[in-house]
Amino acid sequence: MNLWHAAIFGIVEGITEFLPISSTGHLILTAKLLGLEQSVFLTTFEVAIQLGAILAVVVLYWKRLFCNWRVFRLVSAAFIPTAILGLVFYKGVKKLMLIGEPVVISALFFGGLLMLILEWKHVDREEDLDPIESMNYRQAITIGIAQSFAMIPGVSRSAATICGGLLLGLKRRMIVEFSFLLAVPTMVAATGLDLLKSSTDFNAAEWGFLSMGFVVSFVVAMLSIRWLLGWIRVHTFKVFGVYRMIVAALFFFLH
Hints:
mainly alpha
């Protein structure tokens, strides 16, 4: 890896972290296109630079997350299932990431198919409440359980939470904003656990790569978040489901 590679990874992460197309899956596929073999450092790098994208959420939503007690409790409740399952299945998830493309391709395809099915049945009703505060704890925990499936590379944390929200019949904008907020404790915990277990083996150059990926992903994620909020006002998630299936098919034939 070099600094250009790290910057490319940062761009891919910033664009894909909050879109339901799997940032981890795209990072693994990007590594393949760049000719980089999956390794312990690369798998940790792919997780760690997500902190840059998460920082973008904190900058944009800090008041909503930390100063609104109702929202804070809902996010905390949704985080619990992922925290428990993440600790239990940590080693298994790392092994899946090392397997790489086959797992990602399958998850991209079937995740896209599920999104299309859920969107086909979903209707945003005007009478439904829009603010996150109107969500109840059962709904929050259900979305948290759905998010847990994103531990499988290629599923996408954003796609998992969106599918959970669509299954509950919540409005699209509410689902997207709750997915942003839930990303904060989820990715901080996942990255912290990964760095705690692996960072002692990094050299100075590798820390430089991580810093580059972090900064680039932060800047690009700020733009991506604003774009998605504008997009979802007038569009559905169907295009992302189709995109996932097309990407999966392309990499299947190129694999």
